[in-house]
Amino acid sequence: MPRHLPLLFSIIAVGLGFLTAQQIRTVSFINHTVQMQEGQTLSQLVMQAERGNLQAADRIRADRARLVQLGGGPNLARIHRLVARVRPLAALTPVTGSGVQVVLHDAAFARFPNEPAALKLIHDQYVLRVVALLSVAGARAIAINGQRYTATTSIYCAGPTIRINDVPYASPFVVDAVGPPAPMMRALQTDPDILGWSQLVYIHVRRLHDVEIAPYNGLINLSLAKPVKIGG
Amino acid sequence: MWIVLVGLALGVLIGLAVPNVLPASFASYLSIALLAALDSAFGGIRAGLEGNFVPLTFVTGLVSNAILAALLTYVGNKMGVPLFDAALFAFGFRIFQNLGAIRHHLLDRWTHSRVKLR
C-alpha cells in the first residue's frame, strides 16, 4: 500500500462526511420550508374564504333590502301573514299547551305462560294506533320521542328499533300530544286495541298541563308532490 | 482504517458547523452522488475482503461515480428523463448486493476461524 493512500482516503472521508452532513441539513431545511409554505398557503386560503364569506353576506343583505323595496307593501305583508299561519300546520314551529303523554315500553317479563317473545315488544302498529287515536281526538301537534309528526313522517319497525322520521329509536317510546286532554285520554283508555296490548306491554297515559313540542327539524323534500295551481 | 473513520467524523462535524447549507436545488444531485459514493465504499470493502482491492481503482471509481451520477441526474432533469430514479435503483441494488457479499465473506471467515480453533 503506497504511503500517500491513507491521506487520500482520509481526505475522501472528510469530503463524504461533510457532504452527508450538508445533505441531511439541506433536506431538513427543505422539509421545514415546505411545511412553512403549506402553512402560509392554508392561511391564505382561509383568509380568501373569509373574504368570500363576507362578500356573500354583503350581497345577501343587499339583495334582501332590494327585495323588501321591490315587493314591499301589502303583498309582502300578506305573504308573511300566510306563512306565519301555515308554519304551525306544517309542524315547523314549536308549540305548547295542555295535552297528554303516552309512554310505551317493552315488557320486562312474559305476562302469560308460553307467550311468544315478539309479544313482549312494542311494535310500530302500537305507536301508529296511539298517533291515530290522538289525531282523531283532536290533537294539534304530536311528537314521538321528540320527532314531530308531520305530513311526511314515517313510523315503521326496523329490526329491534322503530324508525320515526327515519331516525331509529328503541323502547321506551314517549308520545307527546298537544290538544284537548279529556277526549284524548278517553280515546286511549277505551280503545280495545290499546286495552289488549296493555295486557302484554307497558302502556301508560297521563294528562299534562303543559306539553312543549319541538318543531320538525329534518329535511323537507316534497319533490314528488307538485303543488296544484288553484284556478290554473 | 481508523484514519478513515476519524476523517468521516471530522467531515460530519465540519458539515454541521458550517453556518450555511447548500442550495435546496442541489439536494437531489448531492443525494444521488452520496449514494454512488456509498456504493463505491461498499464495493471497496467487498474487494478488500476478496483480496483484489486496488486503491487507484477504488478512488477513481468513487469520485467519478459520484460526479457522473450527479451530472447524469442533472442532464436527465434538463431533458425530462427521470435518470434520478434509474440511478437510485441501480446504486440501491448494487449496495444491497455488496452488503450481501460482505456478510458472506465475514461469515466464511468466522466459520473458518472456529474450524481452525478446533
From TrEMBL, chain A:
It comes from the Bacteria. Belongs to the UPF0749 family. PANTHER family: UPF0749 PROTEIN RV1825, UPF0749 PROTEIN YLXX. This is DUF881 domain-containing protein.
TrEMBL record, chain B:
The keyword Glycosyltransferase does not apply. It holds the Pfam family DUF1290. GO terms for cellular component: plasma membrane. It is a multi-pass membrane protein. Keywords: Cell membrane, Membrane, Transmembrane, Transmembrane helix. InterPro entries: DUF1290 (IPR009709). It comes from the Bacteria. The keyword Transmembrane applies. The chain crosses the membrane at residues 52-73. It is found in: Cell membrane. Belongs to the sbp family. This is DUF1290 domain-containing protein. It comes from Sulfobacillus acidophilus.
